[in-house]
Amino acid sequence: MAESSEVAGRRAPFVTQAPPESSRTDGWTRRAGATALAYFHLTKPRVIELLLVTTLLALILAADEIPPLALIVEVLVGGALAAGGANTINCWIERDRDQMMRRTAHRPLPHGDVNPNGALVFGLVLEALAFALLWSTVNLLSAVLAVSAMLFYVFVYTIWLKPRSPQNIVIGGAAGAVPVLVGWAAVTGELAAPAWILFAIVFFWTPPHFWALSLKYFDDYQAAGIPMLPVAKGIPTAVRQIVAYSFVVVAITFTLPLVTDAVGIVYVVTAALLGALFIGQAIRLARDTTPAQAIRLFTFSNTYLALLFAAVAVDTLLHSV
Hints:
This protein has 321 residues and is mostly helical. Helices cover 81% and strands 0% of the residues. It has helices at 2-10, 21-42, 45-63, 69-93, 95-98, 108-111, 116-137, 140-161, 168-172, 174-188, 193-216, 218-224, 229-233, 235-253, 256-259, 265-287, 291-320. The protein is globular.
């Protein structure tokens, strides 16, 4: 026992060793990666995807062919920066409301993944980069249109209309329709009737698209005090408006061949088939106002718009051969 005690007394004291340099580096890398990913999610990349599709296909219609690759890249990168900046600023403004909604509570700002001041600066920097890129490589009109969409989305929709009027998405949806004007202006340097028809298609498509989503998340919008149409006027009124707007947007799609020879039979047949499906989904929602049916319409509306614009491009390219 004595020897054991003596040995124990001679033992070196316990020393906490610093983690290896590689571990500290890996930890920093993971944190930096998580922060970068959080900033990326602020831009709402899934929303940007559809905006870029409509922009690209408007480019093709305006050029009556596939535009130069450099122009495509410049416009799409500039458009992505502008849309990302607008979405980031929107997230910054709505961070408190987002905390009240299950659908948005996981976003980087309400979740605490990003500093609010950093988010605002990030959004403004994206907008500045978008304007500088489009002005320097494309033209001034496309740059002004891209930034004007952000201003409309932030000030008219997010700050003014969304918390006050059930018509918020009807008017505010104009911001999401501007990218087609950017695509057209990038090629021609001006705006013409076909561009405005494409704008009108997206503009009138937006209310039924978003009202379907607000039906799915009715409780969220009610809890946050946001007067989306189903909350402010009731679900029966909302579904009637969804059906009415679906007829309007389908009718507008048939006016495009009246203002340009670039589209013909392929586009008309596609517009007719997709339009029938779109109206059919809206009528089904009027008969079955469950969240499941609402999200079916919302999901199909994305497919509808993408395929309709794809038909514009296909017909344009066939016409140019």
